[in-house]
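Q: I'm writing up a methods section and want to include an example of the input and output format. Could you take the sequence below and give the corresponding predicted structure tokens, formatted cleanly so I can copy it straight into the document?
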Amino acid sequence: MSGTLSASRPRRDYLAAADLLRVFAVGLVACFHIWQQSWLDPGFRIGGVYFDLQRIIRRGYMGVDLMLLLSGFLLYLPAAKSGKMPDTLTFYKKRMARILPSYLFALAVCAAFALTYGEDLGSAPLGRDLLAHLTFTHTFWRGTYMWTSLNVALWTLAVEVQFYLLFPLIGRAFQKKPWLTWALMTAIALGCRRAVTPLPDISMLFNQLPCMLDLYAFGMLSAHLLARREPGERRWPFALGSLLCLAGIVWVLWKQNPVTDRELNQLQMNWRPALAALGAGFLWCGGQWGPAFSRAVGNPLTRWCAAVSYNFYIWHQYLAVKLKLWHVPPYTTTSGLPQMDEGQAWRVKYTLLCFAAAFAAAAALTWGLERPAARALSGRKRIEKNE
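A: Here is the clean output for your methods example:
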């Protein structure tokens, strides 16, 4: 795929629903993180009715759950269709070729910035922080997870790589006993979340892999069921089903109204199974859309946004923080809170600049670093983003 909106045609097995869910999930997370810095009210009025979109944006962190669900789906779908799991070493090589170039570049840039401007208060020493990130263990230590001097968005990569290590074993178990494996993974996640709930501080634990296994399980189950369904002639019910699942996801976000950080963490754990089921339903229905709906959803803009989503996710929050630090756009307040003192015009400019900077960086790094490096490391001419 080229780096423009006139992207090449998708492959025959291209799944537009996966790209749409990817864009939706990453967009939710980005809107939340940028809102944290801007305080821009995304609500609007039509007539006398106020539509409070802020309630959705403020739950945008739950987009990470959908990202992990999608990862489980895409990892297992080829094996579900072919009936064969990839060779373990080949799988690991492909995964590392896919994620390491952009990840290591981000670590290098963030470490250089930390050395220049100092480490964050409460963070681990930079050497330990880097070591934890290089070994994908930074979710295990408070100083490297919650207060890292590097890039806070990178915590999800630790969870992903930890799951990659288990995937060959889990995938083979799924092929033999899909429903039992799904049930065991879900039971482990529910049990771990129940075990951490009474603890005085769950902020580090609720987003660790054992508490998130059901997200991967639902994604893999959706791939298993989709691969075994014979395509039918009536496609519109599946398009309707996808829309209903998407509406259900928005409803889950809307239902939450936490007051404290602990309540926020607890509600995210409580609603995780419902969100996973709705996301899995969206992908299962989306795999059976008719050609017309798939073409409309999988348009060049959707495919382009999905293609750059990995680097966009890595950089959106980091750039948002730095732009404000660098007084971009300019502000005069000395309080350190321009989002409070500079008014609505500044918030709008800042929000637009954050998205523009993140998309520009993502596009440059996707086609200037991620794809060429992945091709070189894997020895292949073409790298598909959904692999």
